[in-house]
Amino acid sequence: MMGGTVLFALDEDPLGAGAAGGQLRRIREEVEAHGLEVRWARTGTDAGAVLRTEAGLAAAVVAWDLPPGRRSPARKDAEKDGDEPGGAAVLRRIGRRFTDLPVLLVMSDGADDDLERLPLWVAETVVGYVWPLEDTPAFIAGRITGAARAYRQSVLPPFFKALRRFDDAHEYSWHTPAHAGGVAFLKSPVGRAFFDHYGERLFRSDLSISVEELGSLYEHTGPIGEAERNAARIFGADRTYFVLHGNSTADRMVGHYCVAQDEIALVDRNCHKSVLHGLVLSGARPVYLVPTRNGYGLAGPLPPAEIGAASVAGRVARNPLTPGAVSPHAEYAVLTNSTYDGLCYDAIRVARELAPSAPRVHFDEAWFAYARFHPLYAGRYGMSVGPDTFDGPDRPTVFSTQSTHKLLAALSQSAMVHIKPSPRAPVEHERFNEAFMMHGTTSPLYPAIASLDVAAGMMDGPQGHWLVDEAVTEAIRFRQAVVRMGRRVAAAGDRPGWFFGAWQPPAVTDPATGERYDFADAPAELLRSHASCWQLEPGADWHGFPGLADGYCQLDPVKVTLTCPGIDATGAWAEWGIPARVLTAYLATRNIVVEKTDSYTTLILFSMGITKGKWGTLLDALMDFKALHDEDAPLDRVLPGLVDRYPRRYTGTTLRELCQSMHDHLRDADLVGLLDTAFQELPRPVVPPQWCYQRLIRRGTERVRLADAADRVAAAMVTVTPPGIPVLMPGESIGAADGPLLRYLGALESFDRRFPGFRSETHGVTVDDETGDYAIECVRQDEDIPAC
């Protein structure tokens, strides 16, 4: 039995009588006898539904004269293409959804000129033709099942295909891991429970590098090497490496390779902590580039002026760490693309701007692995920078690190490094592989490798665009639904007129016609097809970022930021508000977990796993929260767990009272403004990060309360979530007691004391459980800090 599904798109009743109907029914029975499931569709509408929902198709049998059906996508295709029958629209849709799916076209018996009246493109689309009454059902079914079998084998990418072949051989395991295909688990009650939960196939495919026929992750040979080369082709790289410890390891790997001891690295301050870890390992001297911020507290892009050659040279010259560097010229530049809130650069322009300042540019694309597969993101990802888009000797070598599991379909911790080298800064495989091996493992999890192989295979050809386009489309529908719900609430007149918003342009323009639409009323096709609808126009209030240029930065539609009343993108405060932390606490009680929460915004990711039912549930929860707020519901009804944990603080409080008191506190403390100042006025660097790390592991540091931390040198990074970006790096001066950093951290400390249960997640800060005091790791005062 082979498994899989075959679409029969035929205008025949599968239970009907007549010669043709009876013959087709017998063909169906023969196909099912070979282990295939048959999905019968009598119109283009029905066939479109199968093509949209059935990813396991192995073949299709389509009647050219299939009726289109009622206003289906197939019907629209037929209307667009003139008087073509429904079968033509189904063929076109198959071509957009699948790569090389075998299609047999059913022709009318007795029509001698059928082939001659078909458009020429049909012959390039189908693998053959069927006249139902001219051959036996068994023969026709054999053609269908043979094509399906070949297709099912061809869609498997290299490593996954080899792993399945090895698994099917049922070989005994004489190598590590010691569970020996799961057998060891069967000898213990708890082990048996573990085995039963995950199933035998997982353990049979958990293998050792001793299995030579599967290749080596370190040597990049065999099916593993073939899978990496296949991924490089799909993602547009010259070389791709599979990484099994997440994008954090990929970032450390690239940084460790690109910059050496006491060399200068240009680092986006809106960077992940793993980038800093790479600098600690390499001993580099960072010069930070400062991104913009808006009134919500969201981190924006590095503006064009910040990455220009003159600006970079000025920052390098003013940095206290530069005099001790090997050279005043940077060897490496790294920036986040897209940002956590979905802002993506014109990558080609960024590479051109940074080229005079660094020979190597690293785009940290942890959340952006899908960009190559949809025209909305054309030119906005690292691997779009190459000799075809940036010719000449100045082109830098480009690295892209992608957390494949985040927004593509791979197992957790699965990541890739893509490289497009330039003659200016060549990347020899043998040298880079030393960094790869230093951060890798000799005991890789083979199912994780297979998931990277499969994730790449899923994006190959038209199916990659189809998968991303579906996520984009659902995100657009949700965005428009939020705005429309807000309109309905305001127009109803029977309740307070507020609702949540979505961070996006309030209006868009059709570039073809010049027609202007409110965002909620714009055609979905316009929003999903034209990148101009998502670009951040210079000076626009809706985004609130200064210093941008036309086309430089674009909002990613699949990263949806919900906005709460209380403040806007320009930083203007309202008299009342709903802090986002309260909303996300409520959503958690509805089993809705968001990606990131800032003071008045919440980030929702529309991955390839999104469905209308999923986002419809979120929209319903937003309406329910509004109703509870408007009726001033008791907090023990809305957040009972919070009241149970902190009864003295919250007993007798209502939801509206909590929201208003938290809003008043945030506004009076101006926490968003303090955040902006802390990020714009960077601390003064004193020593390189690596020097601080060496003191940290040799007891050369001590924990110091904020009240006593003025002018001390930080020994560890401080990262506050929200917003999840470091505010203090090792080796930097904490600054004066009334300086921007301590004022901001002090405001956070005060907030945490006032609102237990809503504490910020602050890496690098310890909190005294009794007093609530913040403390951070500092270099001991008796340490001899070197002059840099």
TrEMBL record:
UniProt keyword annotation of Lyase present: yes
Alphabetical keyword list: Decarboxylase, Lyase, Pyridoxal phosphate
Orn/Lys/Arg decarboxylases family 1 pyridoxal-P attachment site domain residues: 401-415
Similarity annotation: Belongs to the Orn/Lys/Arg decarboxylase class-I family.
UniProt organism field: Streptomyces ehimensis
UniProt xrefs under InterPro entries: OKR_de-COase_N, Orn/lys/arg_de-COase, Orn/Lys/Arg_deCO2ase_major_dom, Prn/Lys/Arg_de-COase_C, Prn/Lys/Arg_de-COase_C_sf, PyrdxlP-dep_Trfase, PyrdxlP-dep_Trfase_major, PyrdxlP-dep_Trfase_small
Disordered, as annotated region: 68-87
Pfam (any one): OKR_DC_1_C
Protein name as it appears in the record: Orn/Lys/Arg decarboxylase N-terminal domain-containing protein
